[in-house]
Structures are given as structure tokens and as C-alpha cells.
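Two proteins were folded this term; both appear here.
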Amino acid sequence: MPLKGLAGKRALVTGAASGIGAAVARRLRDEKVEVFATDIHPLDGAIVADLTSAGDVERLLAQVGTPDIVVNVAGGPVAPTRENTLPELPKHSAALEDIDERQWAAVLAANLTSAFLVCREFAPRMKAKRSGRIINFSSIAARRGSDRVGVHYAAAKGGIIGLTKTLALELGPFGITVNAIAPGYIKTERIAKASWGMPSADAEKLFVESLPLRRAGRPDDIAGVVAMLCSDAGAYVSGATIDVNGGWYFGP
């Protein structure tokens, strides 16, 4: 059954070339939402943009106009560049002393600055309409820490939670909800290829079996929560960080 309140809406989905972003764009289209997909990685039907560039985000606004929904999926533990738009994920976590200032700045820009720039550009248009939904992407790494993705990624995703709460306060009077999703182990193609830092298939199996739901997450599991938050069913949810991790973490 289609979710109420989505058909005919317009949505911007960032990081839509693969994985969770692609699943979110697909689910919203299934709900009859007009989706504008964007990514630094070229993709048929998507707008190519480097969201760490204020100029690119400004040009994106000119192409998209005023969406009803903004979903900031773009990011990852390795920052893409114009030369390497879909970098391989690391098979091993970087220790604190192995992360230099350039890597720190690049990962914060790809995950936190990008969401800030998109929100800064599109929120005023939503305010003028006095309605809208913004969904940002955090991570379980921000909720409980992580020894797999590095402190730069965890710090950036922690910043997303603060950004989300503050924007919920600021934009709520204009009828705009702002929420974050913190995925756990979502086995995208890129995650599977990198083995997500697992030393062996047996180690991954043991980890998955330790999760209360006894399975890895799928991109569609995240896309369903996004769709709910954007629908009438999510109209009174704002400032929340929704943990979608199969029960791996459910702390305060």
C-alpha cells in the first residue's frame, strides 16, 4: 500500500549513484515522487555535483528548484574527488595516528560540510513555502563509536546529529521537519567488496549472527524508513536520529 502524502512531491536525493542513495531514490520513485538524483559519480539521469563546493550546490538549486524533500545521503569513510568519484572503501580501519589533516578535512567535508551546504541552499526556499522534509545521514559510528571507520568519519557523523537537532529547532516554525538516520551494518555492494574491515567470511558470519535480527541490513531497509519520515506518517517526527541497525545499538 502506498504511503500517504508522497505522490506528486519533489525530492532531491544526494549520493544517489549507488548503495543507500540509489535505494532511497528508487523507493521514492515507487511512491510516485519526482526525484532529482545527484552524485559526484556520473550516473544516467542524475545531476553531477561536488557537494563540498558551494558553487556546485548553488548550481544544483538552479537545476532542481524547490523540492518538498531533501535527503542528504552523500558521504562515506573515504572522500570522493572529481578524479576518483567512487573510491574503494578501505579493508582496514585507519588508526588515529594514521589520519593526516588532509584526510580529516576531506572526510568532514564529504559527510558534514556537504549536508550543511545543501541545507543552507535549499532551506530558505522551503521556509518560503512553509513546508518540507529534510533527512540527513549519520551513522552508528556516531552513536557508539567505531573501530572500523576511523575517527574522522565518526566525528563527521556526530556533527550531522548536532546539525539535525539545531535545524529542527530553527526550521520547525516554518513547517519543516528535520531528522537523521543512523544506519548500522548495511551490506551495499561497496561494503561487501571491502568486507567492511572483516578479516574473513567466518568473522563476518559471527558478527552478523551476534545482531539481534541475525542478518545484515539491506539498502531497502533504510529506504523504507526514509519514505515513512517523508510521508504523512512521519509528519510529527522532528529532531530525531533514527537508529536502523537490526538491534545492534539502541542506546539513549
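Next, the second protein.
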Amino acid sequence: MDLFSDNATLTPIPLEDGELSFLRQLEFGIGNEAALARLIADTPWLAHSITLWGKPHLQPRLTAWQGDKAYTYSGLTLTPLPFSPLVLDIKHAVEHASGRLFNSVLLNYYRHERDSMGMHSDDEAELGPQPAIASVSFGATRSFILKHKRSKRTVKLDLTSGSMLLMAGQTQHHWQHGINKQSQALGPRVNLTFRFIR
């Protein structure tokens, strides 16, 4: 039985010490390929350095920050641009599907298989104690990895084009997540992580 056979319903995924839900296809008015092309072409992408263990490192992907509030993580402060019309449409669809409100989004552009995101938790103070993070993906399928901070249990999910993953509750407190580099050739992927900044 396919746990995610219903494309239109946000389906809970059992997760110890956390809340995880998956929607196979977010509906918002245009197709996945058209959304990917517009996001890549219309977003003012930036290459940022972040500070890890006291040293600057260039992020292995491009990013953009849109919304109402600035955001700081790993020594990097992001000043928001206004929501683009397409991102605003996606945000409204995410809010409808999740029943939650979001006021900011981090866009990540994985240009190829060597772009990645290191293991981390979205646990900054301005997100609150139990943040909801809604992650929407377009383009190449990438494996999303969650690792429990105490038990070291690992969960892997394939994030397909058009899908939405919702992390909520104590997930950020107990788990880290990331996207590894891959060896096989992959096309581009854009991921939008919606959040509510206090």
C-alpha cells in the first residue's frame, strides 16, 4: 500500500519526538516544470558564506529570502525581499494545505547533484519553541535525511517535484535534517522552506 497514494491530502508520517506530514502534489495553478523555470529565472539568487565553528564557508547552493522579517542563522543575517507573485501563490497554497500561516520563505537553488545542505535544525529563537516549517520542492528528486539527535535514528524521504513536507511540534528540537551531495548526474531543484518569524 502506498502511504502517499492520495495526492491532495497532507498525510502524517510516524516520527518519534516529532510531527511530520507529506503532500505528494501541492496545487497552486501552474505545473511543476513551469514553476521551476520561473523560480530559477525570476529569483535574485545569492551565494552566501556562513560561519561554522568560527570559520566562513561558502554555502553549496544559492539562496534567496523573501517575506516580512529578517532572519539570522549561522552568523548570516538575511534581509527580506518582497514575496514574488509566484512565491505568494505558492505560500497561499501551502497555508491552505497545512492550516498554518507563514510570513517568510527561504528559497534554495540546488543547481546540480553536488549542491547540498548540511545537517542542521531550524531552531533559532525567532522561530519559537515549536516551529512549523513547510518545505515545497520543484525539479530533481532529492533524498531528505532526518537524524535523531539522541538515538541517531535516520529517516530518509524522497522529495519529488511538487511535493510539500511539513515539520512541526518538537521536530526541530529532537531532529536534524539535510540534503547530501550525490554522485549521479541530477538536474536543478528549487526548494522553498516557509516559516513564521516572530
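The longest helix spans residues 85-98. The chain is about 15% helix and 40% strand. These notes refer to the second protein only.
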